[in-house]
Amino acid sequence: TAESGPEIREGPVETTDGKHVEVAANLGGTGELTPAVESGADGVGLFRTEFLFLDRETPPTEDEQYDAVTDVLDAFVGDRVVVRTLDIGGDKPVPYLELPEESNPFLGERGIRLSLDRHRDLFETQLRALLRAAASEHGDGLAVMVPLVSTIPELEGALEAVDDVAADLADEGIEHARPELGVMIETPAAVLCADQVAERVEFLSIGTNDLTQYVMAVDRESEALADLHDPLHPPVLRAIRRTVEAGRAEDAWVGMCGEMAGDPDLTELLVGLGLDELSMSAVTVPAVKRRIEETSTDEAEDLAERALEAETRDEVRSLL
Ligand code: PEP
Ligand code: MG
């Protein structure tokens, strides 16, 4: 737990040579907000809104979602709070929402695909809540990202939905603002077109849980194949590197919010790969902050260079 681990560090941290890396917390349920604040996190890098839809029989209303988001903004005044739009399907069922029976749910209707089509109504309601929250007292820090994008038209569809909702709110005379917008990079398609994605948004956030699953073609839940679902496989590292380079070229910041970001043994490697932000479960925030403060960017970049040239996961492990 946080109490038995390294000391809690409030405020931003930097490497030994002064490179700032933001350390944010993931929020995946009610009750996680207080630990996130107490962990010394610099903000929220992934607010998984799915939990607002669980343990109930109907979707949350616009006002309920507004309240949930402004609660987080009020707890992280002056910090960035990244909210992910509804990401259901695959490993994330919501019993009362109609999802199709599919033989490969991870390759089916999930993430943004549902939001643009079958559950567009839910998407619009959520965007209304988010655009209103962006205009709330502490709404300046709000950022919104969409999950599981694999095509540019999907991204454009999401951006158009934001514009449409803003126009509706304006017509209705309701206060709203445009939050910072980003995309989760968690499909190989998004990595390969990350330059075109980054041109259109302010940030990219790498979801290594799904990205590893899709790059390695291995179910993220398979126990038998857990060794394959490891982000240290060189192709996954190369996908991360490519995403960082694409973001940099387009002036988009690049973060990571998959499990990989919260492993202190991988912090140096991730700094070396060039991530601007790491977001993780609150309990690992102090340890990762400490690792960043012990890291020299030059050494981290050398490590990353060698890892990117490795041919096996075990070779990468032995470098760490
Ligand atoms: C990921 O895929 O890495 C991610 C952060 O999202 P989730 O685990 O919620 O799918
Ligand atoms: Mg994911």
From TrEMBL:
Binding site for Mg(2+): 186, 210
Enzyme's top EC category: transferase
Catalytic residues, chain numbering: 257 (proton donor)
GO biological process: phosphoenolpyruvate-dependent sugar phosphotransferase system
Keywords linked to the UniProt accession: Coiled coil, Cytoplasm, Kinase, Magnesium, Metal-binding, Phosphotransferase system, Plasmid, Pyruvate, Sugar transport, Transferase, Transport
Compartments where found: Cytoplasm
Residue ranges of every copy of the PEP-utilising enzyme C-terminal domain listed in the record: 9-295
Key word Ribosomal protein present: no
Family: Belongs to the PEP-utilizing enzyme family.
Protein name (record): Phosphoenolpyruvate-protein phosphotransferase
Species: Halostagnicola larsenii XH-48
